[in-house]
Amino acid sequence: MSDMFDLSGRVAVVTGGSRGLGREMVLAFAEHGADVVIASRKVDACDALAAEVIERTGRRAVATAFHAGRWDDCAALHELVYAEFGRCDVLVNNAGMSPLYPSLAEVTEELFDKVMSVNFKGPFRLSALFGASMAAAGGGSIINVSSIAAVAPSPGELVYAGAKSALNTLTTGLAHEYGPTVRANVIMPGPFLTDIATAWDMDAFNERAEREIPLRRGGQAHEVVGAALYLASDASSYTTGAVIKIDGGLAHRAG
C-alpha cells in the first residue's frame, strides 16, 4: 500500500508553502520522494524550509518569492518550475488570507480586491497555466486548499468565504477542463492550530470546540498530510472534482 503514496520522480509546487499547512505538505511530499518548490511572499522562510528539506530528505528543494494575488507572479512561478525541473506533477494552491474588518459596510474596495486576488485570482491563473502544461505532458494533480467558510460562512469572513466558495467551483471546472489526465480536488480545512491561532482567544475557542466540534478540538497542522498525500499520489487515481473536508466535523455540509 505504501507504493500508492510514492511520489518518487515527481515535482510538487506548494504556494504559501513556508509555514502552517503548506509547510507540512512540503515536508510530506519530499519525504515521499518528490522534489519540491516552495513559494511564498517571505522568501527567507522559503529558503530556510528548502534547506531543511534537503537536509532531512535529500530531495531537491527550490525556494522562491511569490505573491498569489499578482498575475505576473503566477506566470513567473510557472516559468521557474519548468526551467528548473521541466515538469510539474502536483500543484497545491495553499496561499490565502482573511483579514478582519469591523463590519460589512466598512469593507473597503482595497480589502475586497486583495482577498479575492490572493484566494481566487491567483489559484485561477496558476491552475490554468500548470493545468495546461500538465495535460500536455500526460497528467498531474491540482490541489486547491479552500475552507469550511465556503459552506459555513460567518459574518466576519464573508469576502474570504466568497473567494473560497469560488475556488470550490473552479475546481469542479478544472476537473472537466483538464481531465482525463489531470485531476483537480479540494482540501477544505476547518480550524487548524497553526501560527494564525496565536491571535485567537484560545479559551473562547476551546469552549466553542467543546460545544460545536465533534472531535472537540482544533486540528494540528500535520493532520492535513494524509489528505494531501492521497490527492497528490496515485492513491487517488479515480478521485477528481472532490471536496475533502478536514474540520473535526464542524461544518455540517460536505460542499
Written overview of the protein:
This protein is an alpha/beta fold. It has one domain: Rossmann fold (3-Layer(aba) Sandwich). It contains seven helices and seven strands; from the N terminus they run βαβαβαβαβαβααβ. A seven-stranded parallel sheet has the order 3-2-1-4-5-6-7, with helices on both faces. α5 links the parallel β5 and β6 (182-189). α1 (20-31) packs across α7 (225-232) and α3 runs parallel beside α4 (109-137). The radius of gyration is 17 Å and the shape is globular. The mean pLDDT is 93.
Quick synopsis:
The chain is an alpha/beta fold and 255 residues long. The chain is 43% helix and 15% strand.
Question: Strand order, biggest sheet?
Answer: 3-2-1-4-5-6-7
Oligomer: single chain
Low-confidence regions: none
Radius of gyration: 17 Å
Measured between the Cα atoms of the first and last residue, the distance is 29 Å
Mean pLDDT: 93
Question: Which superfamily, in CATH terms, is the homologous superfamily?
Answer: NAD(P)-binding Rossmann-like Domain
Kindly identify the CATH topology: Rossmann fold
Shape descriptor: globular
Topology at a glance:
Elements: E1 11-15, H1 20-31, E2 35-40, H2 43-57, E3 61-65, H3 71-84, E4 90-93, H4 109-137, E5 140-145, H5 158-178, E6 182-189, H6 202-212, H7 225-232, E7 243-246
Helix pairs in contact: 1-2, 1-7, 3-4, 4-5
